[in-house]
């Protein structure tokens, strides 16, 4: 299956971002991709006003998603992204959505909020409480995560144990000391330890690293973007997962659940 990963610097006005996403969706479909993965929090961003993502939040039936659903209805490609949705008490939910055929077929509220490296996402965002369900795209079973979820191996393992063979990660990975190293190390580890493909889309621009990538079930980076706007393509194969899991059956060999507590 051909997959696409898009990255760009998210702008303040949602209309600009909706237009960029729509362009990526049409371009990826024209190139034969069946899946498009986009970054985290792509509705609106102002790097000089950090609270803008909350003020600009829209419900899932708002104009931003409505415009994307209209594009999705005319295409066969599946598109995955996250946006901020209004919640109670002036906060928002960071919601991942999966678009197929003009419908939202899956939503996931980000569980692990980025309260790290001096920042506190939980000051503005309500944490999710439920592991996301799996979703099918072609012959692949997808498990979804969002950004900081990557640092919690239990989540990727839970999705793999439920049957995921392709892990999806929209992200806005902040720049900082060794952050590119963390990004590559963690994406490759999550793929290898679960013998899954992993597609990670990272926002690029002045605050975030970009470097979207596709990692194979042996932890090898098979496609990687740089730091600028880019639509990245890669081919993934179900039989490669099957072959890796025959040679390296870590999911089948794991005995922790059988040990006494």
UniProtKB/TrEMBL annotation:
Domain of life, source organism: Bacteria
The keyword Hydrolase is annotated on this UniProt entry: yes
UniProt keyword list: Hydrolase
Domain CN hydrolase intervals: 1-238
GO MF entries: hydrolase activity
SUPFAM superfamilies: Carbon-nitrogen hydrolase
Matching PROSITE patterns: CN_HYDROLASE, UPF0012
Family: Belongs to the carbon-nitrogen hydrolase superfamily. NIT1/NIT2 family.
Protein name: Predicted amidohydrolase
């Amino acid at each position: 299956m051909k997959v696409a990963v898009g990255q760009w610097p998210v702008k303040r006005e949602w209309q600009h971002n909706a237009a960029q996403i729509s362009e990526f969706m049409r371009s990826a479909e024209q190139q034969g991709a069946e899946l498009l993965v986009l970054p985290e929090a792509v509705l609106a961003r102002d790097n000089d006003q950090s609270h803008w993502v909350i003020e600009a939040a829209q419900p899932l039936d708002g104009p931003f998603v409505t415009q994307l659903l209209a594009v999705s209805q005319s295409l066969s490609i599946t598109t995955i992204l996250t946006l901020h949705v209004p919640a109670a008490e002036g906060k928002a939910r960071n919601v991942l959505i999966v678009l197929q055929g003009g419908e939202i077929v899956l939503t996931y509220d980000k569980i692990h909020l980025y309260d790290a490296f001096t920042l506190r996402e939980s000051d503005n965002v309500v944490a999710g409480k439920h592991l996301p369900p799996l979703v099918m795209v072609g012959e692949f079973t997808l498990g979804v995560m969002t950004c900081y979820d990557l640092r919690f191996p239990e989540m990727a393992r839970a999705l793999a144990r439920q049957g995921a063979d392709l892990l999806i990660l929209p992200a806005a990975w902040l720049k900082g000391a060794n952050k590119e190293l963390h990004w590559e190390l963690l994406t490759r580890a999550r793929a290898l330890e679960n013998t899954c493909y992993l597609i990670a889309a990272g926002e690029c621009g002045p605050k975030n690293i970009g470097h979207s990538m596709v990692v194979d079930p042996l932890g090898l980076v098979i496609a990687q973007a740089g730091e600028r706007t880019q639509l990245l393509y890669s081919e993934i194969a179900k039989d490669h997962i099957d072959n890796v899991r025959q040679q390296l059956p870590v999911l089948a060999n794991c005995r922790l659940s059988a040990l006494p507590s």
